[in-house]
Amino acid sequence: MGKELLIGEFSKRTGISKRMIRFLDEQKLLEPIHCDEQNGYRYYEENQIQRAMNIRTLQDYGFTLREIQKIYQECPSGETLLDLLKDQEVKLRNESDEKIGQLLRLKRF
């Protein structure tokens, strides 16, 4: 078991706002290891930092939270994350090429 971090420290380490971390908890994507019943404080482990960073990376690549939930349901360890990112890169390139083509056609008009 790793060192326990309060949500504020976890937020600093991941660069993800406390508000977003709470939202990810509500979405069952990044649940604290436990919550203090008396004060409601959320506690996370250091080993959850990587998952938080993976979620952020997936969002940066255009995945929705619903899609990210599905990814973690199908592959909880995130072992296919690199393959998913490569697939998303191809998808984004194709979309980008299509938009550039549209812009070029508009310029010729």
Would you mind describing this structure in some detail?
The protein has 109 residues and is mainly alpha-helical. The chain is built from 5 helices and 3 strands. A hairpin with a 6-residue loop joins strand 2 and strand 3.
Keywords:
109 residues, mainly alpha, 3-stranded antiparallel sheet, 5 helices, 3 strands
Query: What is the average per-residue confidence, as pLDDT, rounded to a whole number?
Result: 88
**Percent strand:** 5-15%
Biggest sheet strand order reads 1-3-2
Q: How many β-strand stretches?
A: 3
Q: What can be said about the biggest beta sheet?
A: 3 strands, antiparallel
- The rounded distance between the terminal residues' Cα atoms is 63 Å
The number of helical elements comes to 5
Main structural class: mainly alpha
As a whole number of angstroms, the C-alpha radius of gyration is 18 Å
Helix content: 55-70%
SSE string, helices as H and strands as E: EHHEEHHH
The best one-word shape is elongated
The stretches of 5 or more residues where confidence is low (pLDDT under 50) are none
Task: Summarize the structure in short.
The chain has 109 residues and is mainly α. It contains 5 helices and 3 strands; from the N terminus they run E-H-H-E-E-H-H-H. Strand 2 (34-35) and strand 3 form a beta hairpin.
